[in-house]
Amino acid sequence: MTEWDVKKLSILRTLRDHGTVTATAEALLMTPSAVSQQLTNLARQLGVELLEPQGRRVRLTDAAHLVLRHAEAVFAQLERADAELTGYLRGEAGEVRVGAFSTAVPALVVPAVRLLRAEERPGPDVRVREAEAAQAYELLTAGEVDLALSLAAHAPTARDPRFSLFPLLADPLDVALPAAHPLADAPALRLADLAADRWIFGGSGPWSEITTAACEAAGFVPEQAHSAAGWTAILALVEAGMGIALVPRMASREQRREGVVMRVLEADQPRRHVVAAVRHGAESGPAVARVLGALTRVAESFS
């Protein structure tokens, strides 16, 4: 029978995800020569070529991709076994490391923890790590978090065997206007009505993309007056009458300023979709399942 070495298979999967031996070595805290040696040994054990040269790099052979397709089922089963063993040894409390983007921490994670603490039975020990939405899947892959909150725009396809995805909510984007703005009290405000305004959003990254995409869908390209990424800075600029901004409702609940009017857009209201993700198989663990359930209940309160 062919010998399947889980540790070496994990190295092969990391090479697939990171693209180079050097990047794989850095991710696994190994030397490049040790990575190459482990993969050479795995190829010998399996009796197939796993790598082939591609310029100065290497690429996975068809045989390597075949091996990994089967290995993903093994990794998922090991995640389920690890989750069940943790539940057995530590009860349903356990520990769940949650990675979440900034607005999701106060809007979703903290209320979910409060729900768990209010239950009669002990809740999981939730450890929070703030991370950019695009970083969530890197942290999951590296095993640095057990559950990640991200945006659907950054999610892998549903066919990715490494993750299980759980849609949480469609977060509406409202527009923040200075209190003295001519349209602050206008009825039935649409995004297109604000085409001539000066806008505030980040110079790059997901929020810049979300803002420009929403405005372009409404028929115009927004004129960027100022570049800011944090909601405190953005709303301070709006309050000062220096521009307007799209703000997720999750963020506006936590950030309120007297000189800013939050207006719900009619008809063409954009939304961002928030998802939770775990490594495939880990969702069956009692602690992770309870945290997912609490996050879902909190998300439903936004509807």
TrEMBL record:
Highest rank taxon of the organism: Bacteria
Signal peptide, first to last residue: none
Transcription regulation among keywords: yes
PROSITE patterns reported in the protein's UniProt record: HTH_LYSR (PS50931)
Keyword annotations of the record: DNA-binding, Transcription, Transcription regulation
Positions of the HTH lysR-type domain: 4-61
A GO term from the CC aspect: protein-DNA complex
A Pfam family hit: HTH_1
GO function terms (MF aspect): DNA binding; DNA-binding transcription factor activity
Chain coiled-coil ranges: none
InterPro entries the record matches: LysR_HTH_N (IPR000847), LysR_subst-bd (IPR005119), WH-like_DNA-bd_sf (IPR036388), WH_DNA-bd_sf (IPR036390)
PANTHER family associated with the record: LYSR SUBSTRATE-BINDING (PTHR30346:SF29), TRANSCRIPTIONAL DUAL REGULATOR HCAR-RELATED (PTHR30346)
Family, similarity comment: Belongs to the LysR transcriptional regulatory family.
Protein name: LysR family transcriptional regulator
Organism per entry: Streptomyces cavourensis
